[in-house]
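Inputs:
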Amino acid sequence: MMSGFSFEVLAQDAGTAARRGEFRTPHGNVSTPAFMPVGTQGSVKGVTPAQLAATRAQMILGNTYHLALRPGAEVVRNLGGLHGFMDWDGPILTDSGGFQIFSLRDRMSLTEEAATFRSHIDGSLVTISPEEAVRLQEALGSDVAMVLDHVVQLPNTQEKIREAMERSIRWARRCQHAATRDDQALFAIVQGGLDRDLRQFCAAELVALDFPGYAIGGLSVGEPPEAMYEVLDYTVPELPEAAPRYLMGVGRPLDLLEGIRRGVDLFDCVMPTRNGRNGMAFTTRGPVRVRNAKHREETRPLDETCPCEACRHSLGYLRHLFQAEEMLGPTLLSIHNLTYYQRLLAETRAAIEAGQLTAFIEQIVAGWEAGNDDRQQDSLQE
Amino acid sequence: MMSGFSFEVLAQDAGTAARRGEFRTPHGNVSTPAFMPVGTQGSVKGVTPAQLAATRAQMILGNTYHLALRPGAEVVRNLGGLHGFMDWDGPILTDSGGFQIFSLRDRMSLTEEAATFRSHIDGSLVTISPEEAVRLQEALGSDVAMVLDHVVQLPNTQEKIREAMERSIRWARRCQHAATRDDQALFAIVQGGLDRDLRQFCAAELVALDFPGYAIGGLSVGEPPEAMYEVLDYTVPELPEAAPRYLMGVGRPLDLLEGIRRGVDLFDCVMPTRNGRNGMAFTTRGPVRVRNAKHREETRPLDETCPCEACRHSLGYLRHLFQAEEMLGPTLLSIHNLTYYQRLLAETRAAIEAGQLTAFIEQIVAGWEAGNDDRQQDSLQE
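Outputs:
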């Protein structure tokens, strides 16, 4: 049914499971591994579409739950679909609302049929079933839609995790049956907590349903990074070589590299924009706290190798913008961090093509660790 | 002493005192009449230098008082002067702090020597004398500096207005003696409230001191627009034909047109950015309240004739950004309003060259008045 999509592995790294691929969609191609900036409410916070394109973002993410509540999926459809609404011509992926079922767990009731919760905007009751999640995403018109999944908090009992995983498989099948748009690819989501058997069972069941792409969900919900890497170690090999793999909601630059090393192709995270708004910049020498008083008269930019708009300015100026609470500070730092992520991914793709990913990761990590005074503080706070 | 500056009247309107001029500065030329966006704290709120340039702004304004308190004039100097600090290569004018003497009148003590007030940032005592105002502006490195003037609230007693006006003349002379940079032009400021004799006396005294430019200050402090126009009627003719005339802190689009009609060349105001942040857009059909529910599914842009980034989007999308409290809403509307002002001024310059300013103003005002539902509400609220 689905047309205009394909995924091709162009190169494989020498010493790791990393691969360099090309994901083709009706709104253009994505060189993978790729990072998708998050435009929760129809805007990647603080940046215009032109500024977003200048960061070299290829594909972005929108949140079905937020857009369905405001302005409403039908309003978005009438205003040109999500592409026209946001003025973003490139590929867009929408999540399904599954993560919000997790976030709203205290205000949500869940049955086999659907999840029901109160809108955080006007308190009205909202029901999202698998069929409704597909209907909403078809109205939004994203290139990639996600199945509705049941995400649970970790740690949790094996029983609860199994129950949610099994429901996620049944819901994935319902989403697949509900989908009608042939210009939208529907990706499945592997659940199963930190349990090897549950993850592998879930992967096998979903693969048998033959989806055009597979996500690994339910991670980055508070577990240690090492636990997440371990899940990838035993889950990714269960997924087909020929389909794109997407690690949802992840993460820090190191998490991206560790995911790529294990064969992940797509990532999304609010971290570059959220940290940027809070005055934290990602750089080749590790994180920089822009508000730090020591930067007051710093004439050099944040990162001398960075081509972004923020790095046309001195770090002293960027600090001033945050001290003076000027909107331009969050905007420039969001642009910088998004640019940092895209540059990191472009270099990573080149390293995979050269079969040198392990050495590349070592070099990047050494750069972060070398001589950045802000690092220790950040490892505590992030 | 001053080099790199000149002002030339290129054309005169047929039926009004309006003139079309060229003001040359060390950082480039300004076609007048011109509108200067305000970058109070080293940033025109919400927009990057590239976005600001795209609005066709020629010259911008910085606030000496704000920059002197934070980050400090010496810090700005060390970070490249105001041009390097902001990454703005075009001409910059700085005010002197006189208007803040007015704004802070309840927390300020004033002697013949200087004004002293408490910093709104850290409560420290700050003294601004005429000499200090010049020193600060020389450290900032603006192209045009303003003399320190004594602005009083209106209405006020004739005695207080005269006293402040006479002090403004003495302070202007002290500023002139203190100025040392030959790449910075110092403009005088005519005071005198709404009193014809005081205004004309002040103008004559300042003209005798031979400044390269003259501002009309102490207006837009709460008096009716008609009172301001009357001051221009009898003050502008006292100023030399061969020097630029600057109406400080003004104003609404109509105020600009009425000022230009009376021979004013330069304007500055926070209105395009402040109103933009608050969801009010200037358009050829009058003001538009973007948050208005009637715009919810509006597929047309704010202004179909506008080339700005905001007008690539539907009005429905802009409304959504404001409803969702996305930063992009204020940014896009600031860009739109700044673009509106620059387009209005460019058209006004063309109308003066054609000797048709009166007809042009009538046509613009008719456009505002024709069929805009938001207009009545705005005339009450602005």
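Remarks. Residues 285 and 371 of chain B are 7 Å apart (CA to CA). The two ends of chain B are 43 Å apart (CA to CA).
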